[in-house]
Amino acid sequence: MKIRPEILDHWPEVRERLPADFDLEATARLRGAFTRVREIKNAETLLRLALAYGGLGMSLRETCAWAEVGGIARLSDPSLLERLCKAAPWLGDIVAALIAEQAKAPAGRFAGYRLRVLDGTSICHPGADRTTWRLHVGYDLATAQVDQLELTDIHGGENLQRLTYAPGDIVLADRYYARPRDLRPVIDAGADFIVRTGWNSLRLLQTNGEPFDLFAALAAQQEQEGEVQVRVHEGMTGTPPPLVLRLIVRRKDPQQAQAEQERLLKDARKRGKKPDPRSLEAAKYILLLTSLPTATFAPADILTLYRFRWQIELAFKRFKSLAGLDSLPAKKPELARAWLYARLIVAIIAEQIAGQVPDSPPLDAATPRASPSRWRLMKIALATICAAIRGPLLWQAVCNLFTRSRRHLCEPPRRRRKQCDDLRARLT
Protein backbone atom coordinates (compact mmCIF):
# COMPACT_ATOMS: atom_id res chain seq x y z
CA MET A 1 0.00 0.00 0.00
CA LYS A 2 1.30 3.50 -0.87
CA ILE A 3 1.63 5.89 2.07
CA ARG A 4 1.85 9.62 1.43
CA PRO A 5 4.64 11.47 3.31
CA GLU A 6 2.25 13.90 5.03
CA ILE A 7 0.57 11.12 7.05
CA LEU A 8 3.68 9.19 8.04
CA ASP A 9 4.03 10.48 11.61
CA HIS A 10 0.54 10.51 13.08
CA TRP A 11 1.00 8.02 15.93
CA PRO A 12 -0.29 10.54 18.53
CA GLU A 13 -3.59 10.66 16.63
CA VAL A 14 -3.93 6.87 16.85
CA ARG A 15 -3.02 7.05 20.55
CA GLU A 16 -5.85 9.55 21.08
CA ARG A 17 -8.31 7.01 19.67
CA LEU A 18 -7.88 4.91 22.80
CA PRO A 19 -10.31 5.61 25.68
CA ALA A 20 -9.16 8.63 27.70
CA ASP A 21 -9.73 6.86 31.01
CA PHE A 22 -7.69 3.77 30.03
CA ASP A 23 -4.25 4.05 31.70
CA LEU A 24 -1.85 2.13 29.46
CA GLU A 25 0.99 2.09 31.98
CA ALA A 26 -1.06 1.00 35.02
CA THR A 27 -3.05 -1.66 33.20
CA ALA A 28 0.06 -3.09 31.51
CA ARG A 29 1.80 -3.49 34.88
CA LEU A 30 -1.33 -4.92 36.48
CA ARG A 31 -1.64 -7.53 33.73
CA GLY A 32 2.07 -8.39 33.79
CA ALA A 33 2.57 -7.19 30.22
CA PHE A 34 5.11 -4.55 31.28
CA THR A 35 7.06 -5.29 34.46
CA ARG A 36 10.44 -3.58 34.04
CA VAL A 37 12.13 -1.04 31.80
CA ARG A 38 14.77 -2.60 29.58
CA GLU A 39 14.64 -2.69 25.78
CA ILE A 40 11.06 -1.38 25.83
CA LYS A 41 10.85 1.89 27.75
CA ASN A 42 7.11 2.18 28.39
CA ALA A 43 3.73 0.56 27.80
CA GLU A 44 2.93 2.82 24.84
CA THR A 45 6.02 1.52 23.02
CA LEU A 46 4.91 -2.05 23.75
CA LEU A 47 1.50 -1.27 22.26
CA ARG A 48 3.06 0.19 19.15
CA LEU A 49 5.24 -2.91 18.72
CA ALA A 50 2.19 -5.14 19.16
CA LEU A 51 0.24 -3.15 16.56
CA ALA A 52 3.19 -3.27 14.16
CA TYR A 53 3.33 -7.07 14.48
CA GLY A 54 -0.38 -7.85 14.63
CA GLY A 55 -2.04 -4.81 13.10
CA LEU A 56 0.36 -4.26 10.20
CA GLY A 57 1.24 -7.88 9.44
CA MET A 58 5.00 -7.61 9.99
CA SER A 59 6.90 -10.71 11.07
CA LEU A 60 8.70 -10.71 14.41
CA ARG A 61 12.03 -10.07 12.67
CA GLU A 62 10.63 -7.27 10.53
CA THR A 63 9.08 -5.65 13.59
CA CYS A 64 12.41 -5.71 15.43
CA ALA A 65 14.24 -4.24 12.41
CA TRP A 66 11.63 -1.53 11.98
CA ALA A 67 11.72 -0.65 15.69
CA GLU A 68 15.53 -0.38 15.75
CA VAL A 69 15.73 1.74 12.61
CA GLY A 70 12.96 4.04 13.82
CA GLY A 71 14.58 4.47 17.24
CA ILE A 72 11.55 2.94 18.97
CA ALA A 73 13.20 -0.06 20.66
CA ARG A 74 16.12 -2.41 20.20
CA LEU A 75 15.43 -6.07 20.88
CA SER A 76 15.69 -9.50 19.25
CA ASP A 77 12.75 -11.39 17.79
CA PRO A 78 12.75 -14.06 20.60
CA SER A 79 12.58 -11.23 23.13
CA LEU A 80 9.72 -9.61 21.23
CA LEU A 81 7.90 -12.94 21.05
CA GLU A 82 8.12 -13.31 24.83
CA ARG A 83 6.90 -9.77 25.41
CA LEU A 84 3.94 -10.19 23.05
CA CYS A 85 2.89 -13.47 24.63
CA LYS A 86 2.78 -11.80 28.05
CA ALA A 87 0.90 -8.83 26.59
CA ALA A 88 -2.01 -10.82 25.12
CA PRO A 89 -4.43 -10.37 28.10
CA TRP A 90 -3.58 -6.66 28.24
CA LEU A 91 -4.28 -6.24 24.53
CA GLY A 92 -7.60 -7.97 25.14
CA ASP A 93 -8.36 -5.34 27.80
CA ILE A 94 -7.66 -2.59 25.25
CA VAL A 95 -10.11 -4.21 22.81
CA ALA A 96 -12.74 -4.39 25.58
CA ALA A 97 -12.11 -0.73 26.49
CA LEU A 98 -12.55 0.36 22.87
CA ILE A 99 -15.85 -1.51 22.61
CA ALA A 100 -17.06 -0.18 25.97
CA GLU A 101 -16.30 3.34 24.75
CA GLN A 102 -18.40 2.73 21.63
CA ALA A 103 -21.26 1.44 23.78
CA LYS A 104 -21.52 4.83 25.54
CA ALA A 105 -23.07 6.34 22.44
CA PRO A 106 -26.88 6.66 22.65
CA ALA A 107 -28.47 3.54 21.25
CA GLY A 108 -30.69 3.93 18.23
CA ARG A 109 -34.20 2.52 18.54
CA PHE A 110 -36.73 0.86 16.29
CA ALA A 111 -40.27 1.23 17.68
CA GLY A 112 -38.68 1.49 21.14
CA TYR A 113 -36.41 -1.53 20.63
CA ARG A 114 -32.65 -1.80 20.17
CA LEU A 115 -31.64 -4.15 17.33
CA ARG A 116 -28.56 -6.32 17.87
CA VAL A 117 -27.03 -9.25 16.02
CA LEU A 118 -25.03 -12.11 17.53
CA ASP A 119 -22.80 -14.38 15.46
CA GLY A 120 -19.40 -16.05 15.46
CA THR A 121 -16.66 -16.43 12.88
CA SER A 122 -13.88 -19.00 12.68
CA ILE A 123 -10.15 -18.30 12.43
CA CYS A 124 -7.49 -20.91 11.67
CA HIS A 125 -3.75 -20.93 12.34
CA PRO A 126 -1.35 -21.81 9.47
CA GLY A 127 -1.78 -25.36 8.22
CA ALA A 128 -4.94 -26.04 10.26
CA ASP A 129 -7.73 -27.99 8.60
CA ARG A 130 -10.39 -26.89 11.07
CA THR A 131 -11.34 -24.02 13.36
CA THR A 132 -8.60 -22.96 15.80
CA TRP A 133 -10.13 -19.77 17.21
CA ARG A 134 -13.68 -18.47 17.28
CA LEU A 135 -14.61 -14.81 17.53
CA HIS A 136 -18.05 -14.16 19.08
CA VAL A 137 -19.38 -10.73 18.14
CA GLY A 138 -22.37 -8.67 19.18
CA TYR A 139 -23.24 -6.00 16.60
CA ASP A 140 -25.44 -2.94 17.16
CA LEU A 141 -27.38 -2.29 13.97
CA ALA A 142 -28.22 1.34 14.78
CA THR A 143 -24.62 2.44 15.34
CA ALA A 144 -23.17 -0.14 12.91
CA GLN A 145 -20.49 -0.95 15.50
CA VAL A 146 -19.37 -3.96 17.50
CA ASP A 147 -20.82 -3.68 21.01
CA GLN A 148 -19.52 -6.92 22.53
CA LEU A 149 -16.72 -9.30 21.62
CA GLU A 150 -15.24 -12.50 22.97
CA LEU A 151 -12.34 -14.58 21.63
CA THR A 152 -12.31 -18.29 22.44
CA ASP A 153 -10.57 -21.41 21.22
CA ILE A 154 -12.36 -24.16 19.31
CA HIS A 155 -14.16 -25.30 22.47
CA GLY A 156 -16.02 -22.00 22.83
CA GLY A 157 -19.44 -22.84 21.41
CA GLU A 158 -21.94 -20.41 19.93
CA ASN A 159 -24.83 -19.62 22.26
CA LEU A 160 -27.08 -16.70 23.12
CA GLN A 161 -25.45 -16.21 26.52
CA ARG A 162 -22.36 -14.69 24.86
CA LEU A 163 -24.18 -11.33 25.01
CA THR A 164 -25.30 -9.24 27.97
CA TYR A 165 -28.88 -8.06 27.44
CA ALA A 166 -30.90 -5.07 28.57
CA PRO A 167 -34.67 -4.48 28.48
CA GLY A 168 -35.77 -3.47 25.01
CA ASP A 169 -33.09 -5.42 23.16
CA ILE A 170 -33.96 -7.59 20.16
CA VAL A 171 -31.21 -10.06 19.26
CA LEU A 172 -31.05 -11.67 15.82
CA ALA A 173 -29.23 -15.00 15.49
CA ASP A 174 -28.95 -17.87 13.03
CA ARG A 175 -29.90 -21.51 13.54
CA TYR A 176 -26.79 -22.44 15.56
CA TYR A 177 -28.22 -20.41 18.46
CA ALA A 178 -31.59 -22.22 18.58
CA ARG A 179 -30.90 -24.19 21.75
CA PRO A 180 -33.64 -24.88 24.30
CA ARG A 181 -31.89 -23.71 27.49
CA ASP A 182 -30.49 -20.51 25.94
CA LEU A 183 -33.82 -18.92 25.04
CA ARG A 184 -35.40 -18.32 28.45
CA PRO A 185 -32.47 -16.32 29.94
CA VAL A 186 -32.87 -13.74 27.14
CA ILE A 187 -36.53 -13.24 28.06
CA ASP A 188 -35.68 -13.15 31.78
CA ALA A 189 -33.31 -10.24 31.06
CA GLY A 190 -36.21 -8.27 29.54
CA ALA A 191 -35.00 -8.75 25.97
CA ASP A 192 -36.48 -10.52 22.96
CA PHE A 193 -35.06 -12.63 20.16
CA ILE A 194 -35.57 -13.67 16.56
CA VAL A 195 -33.73 -16.95 15.98
CA ARG A 196 -33.76 -19.08 12.89
CA THR A 197 -34.40 -22.76 13.53
CA GLY A 198 -34.38 -26.06 11.66
CA TRP A 199 -36.87 -28.88 11.67
CA ASN A 200 -34.77 -30.83 14.21
CA SER A 201 -33.08 -28.02 16.16
CA LEU A 202 -35.63 -27.99 19.00
CA ARG A 203 -38.33 -30.23 20.33
CA LEU A 204 -41.51 -28.28 19.72
CA LEU A 205 -44.86 -28.98 21.40
CA GLN A 206 -48.34 -27.58 21.09
CA THR A 207 -49.24 -24.92 23.66
CA ASN A 208 -51.10 -27.56 25.73
CA GLY A 209 -48.01 -29.80 25.85
CA GLU A 210 -49.14 -32.27 23.18
CA PRO A 211 -46.71 -33.30 20.37
CA PHE A 212 -46.47 -30.81 17.53
CA ASP A 213 -46.34 -32.06 13.93
CA LEU A 214 -44.20 -29.46 12.15
CA PHE A 215 -44.56 -30.90 8.66
CA ALA A 216 -48.33 -31.15 8.97
CA ALA A 217 -48.39 -27.48 9.95
CA LEU A 218 -46.17 -26.60 6.97
CA ALA A 219 -48.41 -28.52 4.56
CA ALA A 220 -51.52 -26.84 5.98
CA GLN A 221 -50.19 -23.31 5.48
CA GLN A 222 -52.08 -21.62 2.66
CA GLU A 223 -50.32 -18.26 2.49
CA GLN A 224 -46.64 -17.64 1.74
CA GLU A 225 -46.16 -16.27 5.27
CA GLY A 226 -47.82 -17.45 8.44
CA GLU A 227 -47.30 -18.25 12.11
CA VAL A 228 -48.28 -20.72 14.79
CA GLN A 229 -47.76 -20.69 18.54
CA VAL A 230 -45.54 -23.46 19.87
CA ARG A 231 -44.09 -24.50 23.19
CA VAL A 232 -40.37 -25.28 23.48
CA HIS A 233 -39.45 -28.40 25.43
CA GLU A 234 -36.50 -27.25 27.58
CA GLY A 235 -35.76 -30.53 29.36
CA MET A 236 -35.52 -28.73 32.71
CA THR A 237 -36.31 -30.19 36.09
CA GLY A 238 -38.87 -28.47 38.30
CA THR A 239 -41.96 -26.67 37.07
CA PRO A 240 -40.94 -23.51 35.20
CA PRO A 241 -43.75 -21.78 33.27
CA PRO A 242 -44.08 -23.06 29.70
CA LEU A 243 -41.94 -21.24 27.14
CA VAL A 244 -44.51 -20.36 24.49
CA LEU A 245 -43.15 -18.68 21.36
CA ARG A 246 -44.23 -17.72 17.86
CA LEU A 247 -43.03 -19.87 14.97
CA ILE A 248 -42.91 -17.71 11.84
CA VAL A 249 -43.01 -19.66 8.58
CA ARG A 250 -42.24 -18.35 5.12
CA ARG A 251 -42.40 -20.48 2.00
CA LYS A 252 -39.36 -19.85 -0.22
CA ASP A 253 -39.52 -19.07 -3.88
CA PRO A 254 -39.12 -22.20 -6.07
CA GLN A 255 -35.63 -21.14 -7.20
CA GLN A 256 -34.46 -20.57 -3.61
CA ALA A 257 -35.91 -23.89 -2.46
CA GLN A 258 -34.30 -25.78 -5.35
CA ALA A 259 -30.91 -24.20 -4.68
CA GLU A 260 -31.05 -25.20 -1.00
CA GLN A 261 -32.11 -28.76 -1.85
CA GLU A 262 -29.26 -29.08 -4.34
CA ARG A 263 -26.83 -27.89 -1.66
CA LEU A 264 -28.11 -30.55 0.75
CA LEU A 265 -27.81 -33.25 -1.92
CA LYS A 266 -24.26 -32.16 -2.76
CA ASP A 267 -23.20 -32.24 0.91
CA ALA A 268 -24.75 -35.68 1.33
CA ARG A 269 -22.87 -37.02 -1.70
CA LYS A 270 -19.58 -35.70 -0.33
CA ARG A 271 -20.18 -37.63 2.90
CA GLY A 272 -21.35 -40.75 1.08
CA LYS A 273 -24.84 -40.57 2.62
CA LYS A 274 -28.41 -39.97 1.57
CA PRO A 275 -30.11 -36.75 2.74
CA ASP A 276 -33.02 -37.03 5.16
CA PRO A 277 -36.28 -36.49 3.21
CA ARG A 278 -37.45 -34.20 6.02
CA SER A 279 -34.43 -31.95 5.46
CA LEU A 280 -35.30 -31.68 1.76
CA GLU A 281 -38.87 -30.75 2.65
CA ALA A 282 -37.83 -28.23 5.32
CA ALA A 283 -35.49 -26.62 2.76
CA LYS A 284 -38.59 -25.11 1.14
CA TYR A 285 -39.27 -22.92 4.18
CA ILE A 286 -37.70 -20.29 6.44
CA LEU A 287 -38.48 -20.99 10.10
CA LEU A 288 -38.04 -18.29 12.74
CA LEU A 289 -38.73 -18.45 16.46
CA THR A 290 -39.47 -15.18 18.24
CA SER A 291 -40.64 -13.92 21.61
CA LEU A 292 -41.89 -10.59 20.20
CA PRO A 293 -45.59 -9.79 20.78
CA THR A 294 -48.08 -10.44 18.00
CA ALA A 295 -49.84 -7.12 18.53
CA THR A 296 -46.70 -5.11 17.66
CA PHE A 297 -44.88 -7.29 15.14
CA ALA A 298 -46.66 -9.05 12.29
CA PRO A 299 -44.99 -12.06 10.63
CA ALA A 300 -43.85 -9.86 7.72
CA ASP A 301 -42.17 -7.49 10.22
CA ILE A 302 -40.33 -10.37 11.89
CA LEU A 303 -39.03 -11.58 8.53
CA THR A 304 -37.95 -8.06 7.57
CA LEU A 305 -36.07 -7.56 10.83
CA TYR A 306 -34.28 -10.89 10.47
CA ARG A 307 -32.90 -9.83 7.08
CA PHE A 308 -30.80 -7.21 8.91
CA ARG A 309 -28.77 -10.07 10.38
CA TRP A 310 -26.74 -10.07 7.18
CA GLN A 311 -25.04 -6.85 8.32
CA ILE A 312 -22.82 -8.78 10.72
CA GLU A 313 -21.71 -11.03 7.86
CA LEU A 314 -20.60 -7.90 5.99
CA ALA A 315 -18.75 -6.74 9.12
CA PHE A 316 -16.92 -10.08 9.29
CA LYS A 317 -16.06 -9.75 5.61
CA ARG A 318 -14.61 -6.28 6.21
CA PHE A 319 -12.59 -7.53 9.18
CA LYS A 320 -11.21 -10.44 7.17
CA SER A 321 -10.81 -9.08 3.64
CA LEU A 322 -9.78 -5.51 4.53
CA ALA A 323 -8.25 -5.82 8.00
CA GLY A 324 -6.78 -9.29 7.33
CA LEU A 325 -8.18 -10.97 10.44
CA ASP A 326 -8.09 -14.35 8.69
CA SER A 327 -4.33 -14.25 7.96
CA LEU A 328 -3.20 -15.45 11.39
CA PRO A 329 0.52 -16.33 11.13
CA ALA A 330 1.10 -17.69 14.67
CA LYS A 331 0.51 -21.19 16.02
CA LYS A 332 1.58 -20.63 19.63
CA PRO A 333 -1.68 -19.86 21.50
CA GLU A 334 -0.37 -16.90 23.53
CA LEU A 335 1.22 -15.28 20.47
CA ALA A 336 -1.88 -15.97 18.38
CA ARG A 337 -4.05 -14.20 20.96
CA ALA A 338 -1.72 -11.19 20.95
CA TRP A 339 -1.80 -11.06 17.14
CA LEU A 340 -5.60 -11.33 17.00
CA TYR A 341 -6.18 -8.68 19.65
CA ALA A 342 -3.72 -6.31 17.96
CA ARG A 343 -5.43 -6.82 14.62
CA LEU A 344 -8.81 -6.19 16.26
CA ILE A 345 -7.58 -2.93 17.81
CA VAL A 346 -6.62 -1.65 14.36
CA ALA A 347 -9.87 -2.91 12.79
CA ILE A 348 -12.09 -1.33 15.47
CA ILE A 349 -10.32 2.04 15.23
CA ALA A 350 -10.62 1.90 11.44
CA GLU A 351 -14.36 1.25 11.77
CA GLN A 352 -14.66 4.28 14.04
CA ILE A 353 -12.79 6.48 11.57
CA ALA A 354 -14.90 5.20 8.69
CA GLY A 355 -17.97 6.35 10.61
CA GLN A 356 -21.57 5.46 10.02
CA VAL A 357 -22.13 5.15 6.28
CA PRO A 358 -24.34 2.79 4.26
CA ASP A 359 -23.13 -0.74 4.93
CA SER A 360 -23.18 -2.71 1.71
CA PRO A 361 -20.81 -4.94 -0.26
CA PRO A 362 -18.52 -3.34 -2.85
CA LEU A 363 -20.33 -2.42 -6.04
CA ASP A 364 -19.19 -2.77 -9.60
CA ALA A 365 -16.96 0.04 -10.83
CA ALA A 366 -19.59 1.06 -13.36
CA THR A 367 -22.33 1.30 -10.72
CA PRO A 368 -23.01 4.91 -9.69
CA ARG A 369 -22.86 5.68 -5.96
CA ALA A 370 -24.07 8.73 -4.08
CA SER A 371 -21.37 8.62 -1.41
CA PRO A 372 -18.21 6.65 -0.54
CA SER A 373 -18.99 3.16 0.70
CA ARG A 374 -18.07 1.97 4.16
CA TRP A 375 -15.64 -0.45 2.48
CA ARG A 376 -13.70 2.35 0.80
CA LEU A 377 -13.66 4.55 3.92
CA MET A 378 -12.44 1.68 6.07
CA LYS A 379 -9.71 0.92 3.55
CA ILE A 380 -8.53 4.54 3.70
CA ALA A 381 -8.70 4.46 7.51
CA LEU A 382 -6.61 1.29 7.67
CA ALA A 383 -3.97 2.87 5.42
CA THR A 384 -3.84 5.93 7.65
CA ILE A 385 -3.50 3.87 10.83
CA CYS A 386 -0.76 1.71 9.31
CA ALA A 387 1.16 4.82 8.32
CA ALA A 388 0.73 6.33 11.78
CA ILE A 389 1.96 3.19 13.54
CA ARG A 390 5.04 2.87 11.35
CA GLY A 391 6.21 6.44 11.29
CA PRO A 392 8.99 7.43 8.84
CA LEU A 393 11.39 4.62 7.92
CA LEU A 394 14.88 4.54 6.43
CA TRP A 395 14.53 1.82 3.82
CA GLN A 396 18.20 1.28 3.13
CA ALA A 397 18.99 1.06 6.84
CA VAL A 398 16.35 -1.65 7.26
CA CYS A 399 17.78 -3.61 4.34
CA ASN A 400 21.31 -3.22 5.69
CA LEU A 401 20.22 -4.41 9.09
CA PHE A 402 18.80 -7.56 7.50
CA THR A 403 21.90 -8.27 5.46
CA ARG A 404 24.12 -7.90 8.55
CA SER A 405 22.36 -10.68 10.44
CA ARG A 406 24.23 -13.95 10.62
CA ARG A 407 21.44 -15.98 9.12
CA HIS A 408 21.19 -13.82 6.01
CA LEU A 409 24.99 -13.74 5.52
CA CYS A 410 24.83 -17.49 5.03
CA GLU A 411 22.21 -17.21 2.30
CA PRO A 412 22.84 -16.59 -1.40
CA PRO A 413 23.00 -12.88 -2.35
CA ARG A 414 20.06 -13.22 -4.73
CA ARG A 415 17.87 -14.52 -1.91
CA ARG A 416 19.02 -11.71 0.39
CA ARG A 417 18.11 -9.13 -2.22
CA LYS A 418 14.69 -10.71 -2.73
CA GLN A 419 13.95 -10.64 0.99
CA CYS A 420 14.94 -6.98 1.20
CA ASP A 421 12.79 -6.20 -1.83
CA ASP A 422 9.87 -8.10 -0.26
CA LEU A 423 10.30 -6.15 2.96
CA ARG A 424 10.37 -2.84 1.09
CA ALA A 425 7.24 -3.83 -0.87
CA ARG A 426 5.32 -4.85 2.26
CA LEU A 427 6.16 -1.69 4.17
CA THR A 428 5.47 0.77 1.37
Structural summary, described in words:
With 428 residues, the protein is of the alpha+beta class. The chain has 16 helices and nine strands. A nine-stranded mixed β-sheet has the order 3-2-1-4-5-9-8-7-6, with helices on both faces. Mean pLDDT is 81; it is low at 1-8, 358-371 and 392-412.
Element string (H = helix, E = strand): HHHHHEEEEHEEHEEHHEHHHHHHH
Biggest β-sheet description: 9 strands, mixed
Please state roughly what percent of the residues sit in beta strands, choosing from under 5%, 5-15%, 15-25%, 25-35%, 35-45% or over 45%.
5-15%
Average pLDDT score:
81
Helix proportion of residues, in percent? 40-55%
Measured between the Cα atoms of the first and last residue, the distance is: 6 Å
Task: Quickly describe the structure.
With 428 residues, the protein is α+β, with helices and mostly antiparallel strands.
Structure keywords:
alpha+beta; 9 strands; disordered N terminus; 9-stranded mixed sheet; 428 residues
Question: Any chance you could write out the topology, listing elements then pairs?
Answer:
Blueprint: H1 11-16, H2 24-31, H3 43-55, H4 60-69, H5 77-103, E1 114-123, E2 133-140, E3 145-153, E4 169-173, H6 180-188, E5 192-196, E6 204-205, H7 214-220, E7 225-232, E8 243-251, H8 254-271, H9 277-282, E9 285-290, H10 299-307, H11 310-322, H12 333-354, H13 374-390, H14 395-404, H15 406-409, H16 413-427
Parallel strand pairs: 1-4, 4-5
Antiparallel strand pairs: 1-2, 2-3, 5-9, 6-7, 7-8, 8-9
